[in-house]
Amino acid sequence: MAHNKIITGIDVGTDKCVTLIASVNEDQSLQVVGVSAVPSRGMKKSQIIDLEKVLETITESLDGAERMAGLEVKTAYVSVSGSHIKSQNSTGVVAVATPNQEITNSDVERVIEAARAISLSSDREIIHVIPKDYKVDSQDGIKDPVGMTGVRLESEAHIITGMSTALRNLEKCIQDLGITVNDFVFSGISSAGVVLSETEKELGVAVVDIGAGSTSICAYVEGSLEYSGSLPIGARHITQDIALGCRVSIDTAEKIKVDLSNKKIRPLTPHAGESKADFSRRKKQQDDIKVSDYDNSDTDEVLSHKTITEGIMLPRMQEIFGLVGDLLKEQGLLKDIPAGVVICGGGALTLHIAEVAKRELNLPARVGEPTKLDGLVKDIHSPLYANVIGLLYYGLNHGQPDSVSNFSIGSVFSGFGSIGKLPEKVGSLFKSLLP
């Protein structure tokens, strides 16, 4: 059996749960070998509201990816988001320990730990400690101080925290499937890793990951992460607005939103010799949306394309970017991100989203495509999957990939749904019965 190194990413979102499994090639590139996306159940605004349904959702997604890859997953990187995510910047200071005053990796680890020592309430815990830059004696702006000579080492770090209960509940769901959580990764950071260029980070840029239930934001200034946060609003709110405004079901509203976003409607011009009445009739036909095309009903109700896009979708998108702008302004960052905003997540596929962002923020805006992968990527090379693709790259850069055997016994059982974890569950049962 061939042994490969693999990395697994799991994104448990409000609308969907996606699992990606990638093998690590000899040149340290990634090749996707397993993909599974299933509708989420038991999630609201990126947080768990029904543990059992979330467990079933993750099981279904994980089993699908394992069957496709032909292997059994042992560990995974898991994304987190939601309004409970907070960030702050902290400074640590240590004396250089070596007698010759040469800075070593040990000194760097100590100064990061010193920056990590912040006061937190008992219900919060640290997810990330990301060094921004270092200062050796009086010289600041240093990116890597190892090997330099100095007496005093300082580090400014960006610290991201989350609610302990939200993290533990998600971890419980993953561990109940026999999977060890390598790391929780804030969705803004994972997305930024695959949609932002180094040039944009140096200039100053913000990534806006619009999920179904929440929007994650990360702002970079002079190449360093300056701010991270989340808003409790997302693309699902646009769908709900359409459902309420047009008096249709949520499923029908989602189909209409996706279809409108995929269609490229060009402005009509009168044909040569066409009467005004005929031209008006043709314009109305283009504007008409038949509800029966989306819910397979016998209704003859007709909706207006213009009313939905300009009267319903546009105000909600303006609200989202208005809140993003308020948040960045509150942090004093709007003037520090001349490269503008890069939009990703499922909400990035919404009609005219970049144009709305440009007008609301008065900054450049573009939709971010994730870094191209090899393997089974035909359906996932989209802003929709930036977060989970970013998890794979985060694992590649920050951890040790799993060593697995292809076509393990787990892959044989996984064709039977949750029975794929049967050996572990039976082992756990016998352990619990022992005195």
Description:
With 435 residues, the protein is of the alpha/beta class. The chain is 38% helix and 29% strand. It has a domain at 86-163: Dna Ligase, domain 1. Helix 11 links the parallel strand 17 (341-344) and strand 18 (365-367). Helix 1 packs across helix 3 (164-175) and helix 6 runs antiparallel to helix 10. The two termini are 38 Å apart.
Q: Give the beta-strand count.
A: 20
- Rg over C-alpha atoms, rounded to the nearest angstrom: 25 Å
Described by strand count, sense and barrel closure, the largest sheet is: 7 strands, mixed
Report the principal-axis shape.
Answer: globular
| Termini Cα gap | 38 Å
The tally of helices reads 14
Q: What is the name of the CATH architecture of the domain at 86-163?
A: 2-Layer Sandwich
For this structure, the CATH topology of the domain at 86-163 is Dna Ligase, domain 1
Strand content: 25-35%
Helix fraction, binned, reads 25-40%
What is the residue-averaged pLDDT? 86
CATH class of the domain at 86-163: Alpha Beta
Task: Point out poorly predicted stretches.
Answer: 405-435
Question: Structural class, from helix and strand content?
Answer: alpha/beta
